[in-house]
Amino acid sequence: SRYIPGEDNDEIAVARMLIEQSIDMGGSKVQLGGMQEHGDSVLAVSDYHGNTPLHSLFQPHLRRQSYIRYVELIIEMSARVDEKRKTSFYWNELMLQQNKGGYTPLHIMAMNTAIEYRAVSSVLKKCNDVWESRCLIHPLLQRNTRGDLPIHIACVYADANEQWMEAFVGFLDSDYKVTYDTVFTRKCLLRILEKFINDHDEEFEQFWNDNNWWSSGEVQYVSLQQILSSNEQMDDIDWSSLQTPFDDLLPKLRVLLEAAAKSNMYHTHQKQEYEISPEPVHLAASVPNFPTFVLQMMALHDQSAFLRTDEHCRIPLHYALVATPGNQEPDSGKASYGQDLVYWSANDESRSLVQFLLDNAPSSADIHDRDGRLPIHLAIANNRDLSSVVLPLIAAYPGSISAIDPCTNLKPFLLAASHDNASLDLIFRLAALEPSLINA
Asked: Please, are residues 187 and 147 in contact by the beta-carbon 8 Å criterion?
C-alpha cells in the first residue's frame, strides 16, 4: 500500500492492531500456530528458524519503500510494553533476540543497505538510550554463532559506504566505550580484504601480471601478504591496477581506524593533546598491532605518506610511538582466530610496526614533531621497548642519542632515568651510547 509520511497506511495500521492486541494479551503465553509462544507481545514470537518479526522486517530481500514508520511503530509499542511491565529495556530485549544462526535484528539490518539512514540511526539511538539502564548487554556487542558483531557484517557488504559503517561504529563508540580490539579485529580486517579481492578479480589478475617476478606455477602458493611483506620487493611493486579499487576501500578502513584510535586513547588514558589524525596512513600507524602488510597497501596507494606531516605536524612514526596498546595479551586456541590484532601481531608479523616504518622510511627518525621532539624522545617518554623500538631508532639516526628533548631539556639517557617505569637495561644502554659519557 502507498506510504504516507507521518501517518499509518493500511499495512502499518494492521501491524499496529495486531501488536496492540498481543500486548493486551501479554503474560498469557498463547501458542501461535507453529510458532513459539509469546509473553509480552507478538514482536517476540519466533518462527522455525528463530526469526522474529524484527528479523523479517530488516531482511535484505524484503525491500520496502520506507522503514522509518515501522521502526517508529515498534519503538512506540515497546514503550507500551515497558509501561505495562514497569521496566525500561524491552526494546533491547527485542534487539538481542537471536535466530538459529545467532543473528540478531541488528545483524540482519547491517546486511540491508536499502534501509534509509534515518531508520538505522533511530534504531541504534534507541539501543543506546535503553542501554543506559545497564540491565542487558548492548545489542551492538551481541555476537552471532560465528563470532561476528553487527559492525563486522556491515563491513563486508560491497555497497555499504562509510556513512553506513559510521552509523554502527559511531553509536557503538559514542555512549559505550568498547576496546578497539572488540571492533577492529583480525577477523574483521581479513573479511574486508577478502571481499576486496573477490570483488576485483580482473584488477587482481592484472596485478599478478604486472608484478611478474613470480612464475605462473608459484602464483597459486603466494599470498598478497607475502608479496607486500617482502621488503626487498616493495620498490618494485606496481600498484596501478589496484589504485582505483583501493579508493573505494579506503573510506571504510578510515572509519574503523578512527574508531580504533579513539577507543585506544580512551582506554589507555592517553594524553588527549595528541589529536586523531585525518590521514589514513597516520591513523593506521596510531593503532597498536595494526598489520604491516595492510599499512603497506595504504602506503603504495599514497607513496609520500610515510614522510608527510599531517595537520598536527606529525608523521606516521610519531603516532606509532605515542600509541600505547595497554595490557593486552594474545588469545590462544580456537577462539583466537580473528578476535584481536595482538594475536595477529604475535603470529603473523616478523617485525613491529615501528620497525616496518623505519625500514621503509629511515629518515623519519630525524623528523621533529610539533613540539620539537624527535622520535627517540617520544619512544623513551612512552616507555617503548629497547630492542624493537629504541635501538632501531638510534640505528636509523645515530645523532639522536645526544639530542636534547625540548620538553624536558634532558638527553635520552637522562629522559629514560626520569621515567618511573623505565628499565635499568634501557637506561644503561642509552648511557653507554652517549658520546659525552664515553669520552669522559
From this structure: yes
107-111, 116-120, 223-227, 353-357: least confident range? 223-227
Q: Cell match 623513551: residue?
A: 380
Whole-angstrom distance, CA of residue 414 vs CA of residue 142: 48
- Residue 17 burial by Cβ neighbours in a 10 Å radius (0-12, 13-18, 19+): exposed
Grid coordinates given for 366: 630525524
**Which of the pair, 64 or 88, is modelled with greater confidence?**
88
Return d(Cα 179, Cα 77) in angstroms, integer. 33
Phi/psi of residue 410, nearest 5 degrees: -115, 145
Q: Which long-range contacts (CB under 8 A, 24 or more apart) does 67-71 make?
A: 67/115, 67/116, 67/119, 68/116, 68/118, 68/119, 68/122, 69/3, 69/5, 69/8, 69/9, 69/12, 70/12, 70/15, 70/119, 71/119, 71/122, 71/123
Please give the distance of CA 357 from its chain centroid, rounded to a whole number: 21
Q: Looking up cell 547491517, which residue turns up? A: 110
